[in-house]
Amino acid sequence: MLDSYRDDIRDLDLFAGMKQESFEALMRGAYIQNFPPRIELISEGDTPDFLHIVISGSVDLFSSWNGRETSMATVRPVSTFILAATIKNAPYLMSARTLEKSRVALLPSEDVRAIFASDGAFARAIVTELAQCYRAVVKNTKDLKLRTSLERLANYLLRQQRHNGSPEFDLRMEKRRLASFLGMTPENLSRAFKGLEPHGIKVAGSRIIVHDIVALERFAKPSALIDRYDS
Amino acid sequence: MLDSYRDDIRDLDLFAGMKQESFEALMRGAYIQNFPPRIELISEGDTPDFLHIVISGSVDLFSSWNGRETSMATVRPVSTFILAATIKNAPYLMSARTLEKSRVALLPSEDVRAIFASDGAFARAIVTELAQCYRAVVKNTKDLKLRTSLERLANYLLRQQRHNGSPEFDLRMEKRRLASFLGMTPENLSRAFKGLEPHGIKVAGSRIIVHDIVALERFAKPSALIDRYDS
DNA sequence: GTGACGGCTTGACAATTATCAAGCGAAACA
DNA sequence: TGTTTCGCTTGATAATTGTCAAGCCGTCAC
Hints:
Two copies of one chain form a homodimer.
Chain A: H1 3-11, H2 13-16, H3 20-28, E1 31-35, E2 40-42, E3 50-56, E4 59-65, E5 68-75, E6 79-81, H4 83-88, E7 95-98, E8 102-108, H5 109-118, H6 120-146, H7 149-164, E9 168-170, H8 175-181, H9 186-196, E10 201-204, E11 207-210, H10 213-220, H11 224-227
Antiparallel strand pairs in A: 1-8, 2-7, 3-6, 3-8, 4-5, 4-7, 9-11, 10-11
Helix pairs in contact in A: 5-6, 7-9, 7-10, 8-9
Chain A binds a DNA duplex through residues 148-150, 174-176, 184-191, 194, 205.
């Protein structure tokens, strides 16, 4: 079962450079599990038992406090999540639930920490991964603190547009979750889409048409230091 | 000059476990510099030349966009900053300026990356450090997205109270900067302090008196997964 | 088909937060 | 001792964002 995905996992930057022996050791305790949609994989506050790798499907990372909930990120194949908690052996700061039918590889946390301690190449790969994650969260914080919700939506759409390469694309998530991810209510998101119509956006259901990129960019003022996923 | 602080640096978790030879190599290219208050040490977007270590004084990390500015964090001795940018050799996401007269050690980025590649213990220490930073930023994001500004202030005061160990303490930063750090305007912070008076807070200038911790906690609902710096 | 459900939208309204302008007061300075 | 400066506070007002309630409209099960 696991063997079918072994190569996908090995190809991840995180595992590509490590010793074959280390990789084998990691795979020995690992296994694959399939989940239906909307299953909670981990709950914030729990102690990390496994490093998770999304093989197919997608996973929502979210957090709650005082009866409120917010979507923090979406994990898409093939990538890991909650690496930091696993390494530090500290409680999860976020919960995770499947958004759709998903296949997930589970690597026992203790194995990960053991190999981390013994395989320098693996340790270095983890550094790169964590640095990447850290910088992504910093960018997100800048987005939240420096922009209004309308500006956040505008820049989100520009990022999607760039990612898709086409001026016309579908939102990859429910609007309610997009709203939560952008730090606003669904009602407000609905109005924000309306508010972007004078800036070159047309919306039809989950279909977005950027019919005037220049106008949208003039309004959104995208910045490499907030909106570029690379760098 | 550098020698006087060599031990302080070596005692940092980041450098404590590395090979003596690696540490020597790092120190060889390093030097100490003194800065007056309000000097900009680095600017976001620049390429990292040095890993910075605050030896004394304090440094504000902040970001700007579209004419707006927000304070992201305060670095106090003895600790490093912009480690992620240094390791990835990617542009700074934040700027840094001294808040007061400060002493800073500068380690050439190339040296740091070279030792990172050759010394496994150093790589592992960097992992721990980055994981810590990552989790801190995630907590900050939760604070921003899940709480109102009044709740953020209340929890900030509780954290300070806990840190000081006394129900009475001084704010460690200008209120305007605290406002920016908490994601609000100075005017709003002023009103927020007033708004916390019914919840056990008294304010006299920069002096804070928590005269009813229970009431404050009842309102603030602090959470380990947002407000604890350790874990 | 038909009805129920759920997500999205809309409108009215309320709460939160920001902006602008003015004034206060402590520290710095002449 | 006055004067200036600067950060903080306050009030009035505006903008932004959230809440509540209702309705729309697709999907899906029966």
